[in-house]
Amino acid sequence: MSTSTLHVVHHPLIEHKLSYLRDKRTGSRQFRTLLEEITLLLTFQATRDLRGEEVRVETPLEVTRCHRIREDRLVVVAILRAGLGMVDAVLKLIPGARVGHLGFYRNEETLQPVRYYGKLPPDPEHRTFLLVDPMLGTGGTSVAATSELKERGARDLRLISLVAAPEGVAHMAKAHPDVPIYTAALDRKLNEIGYIVPGLGDAGDRIFGTV
To answer: Does the active-site annotation cover 65?
Structure first.
């Protein structure tokens, strides 16, 4: 599958850690650690085009010019609940970033995502948003979350998911072709009940030990 919005980050460390993340024998504690480590590596790629502001820094030897990003202009937005497991990893790299939350449930009649919670920082038009969710399955929730951010004025958005299904990538690309997707793996498909295969199971249950 090829789309200009999709960036599958190939790296031996990511592939190594993802093999343990997929393993059904991996417990919640190790799962959370692996999730955080892979998120760190994906965030590194998702932020590679950020532009820093020039500053003058006095080293022990001389004054030199360096570049610093405005950390307070970055917002990591967790799609509840599984996205919470990725937030701390982003904050380790960008400790000054703001944090937002968006929660959705699926209407059983329409099968469409319905927002039940939203909390975001002000002035979204001046910020860069990193939307995080471990799984990009059907894409319904990611599309809804991205649409809400845009409706509030956000212009610079990136989606970070550990594992993606072709169906979800296609849905996002059609609805939001301007939003890049960063993932560790593009899996084969969704099964008949909407799970990514081979996938890694229910990320929320494995993060929080509610299997």
So the answer is: no
